[in-house]
Predict the structure.
Amino acid sequence: MAGYDFTAIERKWQDYWAEHRTFEVPNPGQAGFADKPKFYVLDMFPYPSGAGLHVGHPEGYTATDILARYMRMQGRNVLHPMGYDAFGLPAEQYAVEHGVHPRVTTERNIANIERQIKMFGFSYDWSRRVATTEPGYYQWTQWIFLQLFHSWYDPEADAARPIGELEHKLQRGQLMVDLGGNLVPPPATQRIEAIAGQPVGIYSWHQLTPEQRRGVLDNQRLAYQAEVPVNWCPALGTVLANEEVTNEGRSERGNHPVYRRPLRQWMLRITAYAERLEQDLAQVDWPEPVKMMQRNWIGRSTGAEVDFPLQSVADDEWFKGRSDDGFAPQPEDEVIRVYTTRPDTLFGATYMVLAPEHPLVERITTDGQRPAVEAYVQAAVHKSELERTAESKTKTGVFTGAYAVNPVTRQPIPVWVADYVMMGYGTGAIMAVPAHDSRDLEFARAFNLPVVQVVAPPAGEQWEGFIGDGTAVNSGPYDGLATPQFKQRITDDLERQGLGRGAVNYKLRDWLFSRQRYWGEPFPIIHCDTCGTVAVPEDQLPLVLPEMEDFTPSTSDDPDALPSPPLAKATDWVRTTCPACGEPARRELNTMPQWAGSCWYYLRYLDPHNRQRFVDPAVERYWMDGMGVDLYVGGAEHAVLHLLYARFWHKVLFDLGHVHTPEPFGKLFNQGMIRSFAYRDSRGVYVGYDQIDFREDGAYHRLTGEKLIESVEKMSKSLKNVVNPDEVIAQYGADTFRLYEMFMGPLEASKPWNTRDVPGVHRFLHRVWRMLMGSEDAAALLGESADDAVERALHRTIRKVGADVEAMRFNTAISAMMEFVNAVYKAGALSRDQAERFVQVLAPFAPHLAEELWRHLGHDASLAHEPWPRYDEAMTREATIELPVQINGKIRTRLSVAPDASQEEILAAALAEPRVAEQTAGKTIVKKIVIPGRLVNIVVK
RNA sequence: GCCGGAGUGGCGGAACGGCAGACGCGCGGGUUUCAAAAACCCGUCUGGGUAACCAGGUGAGGGUUCGAUUCCCUCCUCCGGCACCA
């Protein structure tokens, strides 16, 4: 008998699957398509880094592979694809340092990582492989960008609509434009103009010049350009996303200084989708922590906007005018509009604060205060937001010299400038209620501003700094109201008086979408002196990234240097003609961020070779039926950004009719991080595993003999605790690797890799092999007789493994299979028929071994599409079961009964037990509890 | 600071409110062997007892319940996320 030669077996079956295209699945309309229910199971595709796979990648991939193989056996059409997220800064950095083109390194890395992935025997449909860097792929990334560019968010429809519809509305006068270029409803009456006595700054479409019209439309697109404060890293020559900047205000890559600079950049209007991104989380089956993180990121809060008039204008007349006119839709020069979540504390607002960037600062600052204010604003603007928060321990600020009037107390209150107020949130101005806001209190204490109590806390709590709900005091007619009621009442009253209204705010900001890099998708945009910003026509896509010898960004130590994207050097490529007017024009020089390609790859897998469309509608309808991807597995590090960006794009595509589900990923699962033991000596120097003697009582340094300190850490080179999957597979095989990672613990838990545990599951596979194939020392247990206990154990195993796989409890599924094999060894035999069913159950976990055994059992074809074995509920029970009998909750004896015994029978049997009689003698039985199939509890007194 | 998640043998971890520690590692003993590896069998929470058995035990303290690792409250520790968001 041959031994279990996993190396040969695994190679053989991987070749077989590739040759027979076992896992390729046709689309509707293609040859061989069977009309069956679908299952779309997706992995987060990897970034092909030079380091290759670490043991964390295959953890999620194994889990999805088990599901994919199980679902195939359940008769589903399974879509299980893999690809590469291959644009990005690391490849470009490496290329610059080594003088190799990023395409070369990317292709090399993909080849290596694919070799590694294939070693595990995952059942991917490799014919659907994509890489975000292929022109045939990024053609459609560019196409989706153009959909964003050609759309605006129509608040009436609560959806994205073609920009042409907006133009139409403007032409017909259904919308107008104010001085700031914002859309406004047409004035209800002529009265407003009459009161003002001069133009009120609202224009109709026909009053605008062609350039102005273009500006208005450009300003409403979902992809638009705007001057925004960005993280500018001159040493890297690019702007960076917040997540690419460290807490110290330096670049994650290279540790270079990063500066906050207002620069004109491409933005995506994700904020228009804030409400729907928040609301629709209720429709998806995602881990609650991930939903929480997204809700947090979106940061929805409810409150009110309130106008505080400047003292110079706020006479009785002004207040009267407001109650006649109502709350104007846009802020005016004479009021400071604030957003607050606590309108009930309005009576306690004793001063106001403007963000340093607030446009009113310059207007209202008095001459006496101007030098101080200007110095403060200059300093604040030059700090990064990180610096501003890092120095948050002490509050700073300057008085503007101006006063505003509290709209309810009608008292003048001072207006300050301070950097603890952010221009990017709310209105960039706050009413400060030091009594009931800890930041305001800190500020008030620092600058000796008055603190007025307006909320009475529950008994026993200090009012100063109390921020919870309580009862109103010092609030005139509202005294005695509970906080929630007060909020509602005063919001209604302010609205009636034209001084405020209920409002919803979000922390979410628009998405900075451009990078000054070479290795990314070029924007399909052309700049024309006469026509402005013009889209590249769709039939000219893909706009291919130009081949360049020198793709290094221009870097600098000078914080004031301006970004100069590498594409600027491709002068022939940049020079083009305007698609609209045919005059000479220039291409956009920025490229898209790495997130772009990963925002929609799950859709391209559906139809990866389609040259006419990004995905065929019928194909999309089939595979995305229900709520899109049926199972999406990946690490929690993408809980916010990737998953939020992808949901956003999907919703835009949904609004425009290109996909038919409102959400892309119906079910999401986060695998836990695999960490590993790290060892360091008394000086804190980390020691690699090859330098360690593992003894019974701990780890010792092989050379010095010193006992080492053990800890569980993230795998990292510097901690010398990285486990390389290639080595584990070489030693134990892919089936063992898969089984080990699934057996370590719950998939969602973070858990330490322990190489010493790997032989345990390897031993199990050996036992399975010997059970059916025998060994030199022992014959196989395979026979013709079917043992009843084994048969019952098998039914239980089939049920348990099926249920566990569906619930993604792979660790206990494997335990159940181990128990079955132990039972077979105990019984000493199993029939061919039992062996076949067991091999089918094992197949999703250890597919190579299962295929080999399946063949040995006399089958010619792969078992990948065999049906999952059935079980009989009656056969999952033992012939007799043991029930514990408790007296007062303590087990005193056990009872053997038939599994279907009635409550009365069980109770009678229990009371007949000598141990029970002994324990209850001389006592009264007050209660008898019988849970059939569980236990008996007799309560005595 | 705020929001999540988790604390169970020497280790990884099991337990619809119902036999705590399944399964695996490690360890101890045995069978086999010239020997070793491998394999197979037995044991392995703690204390007491030859044993049957008794007592204690799931981070700490309280509560609900016939019964709590599981549900509720307070606290401690660790991990993850956000962080002047008005």
Remarks:
- The CA atoms of residues 393 and 442 of chain A lie 10 Å apart.
- The radius of gyration of chain A is 35 Å.
- The first strand of chain A starts at residue 38 and ends at 43.
- Confidence is low (pLDDT under 50) at residues 189-199 of chain A.
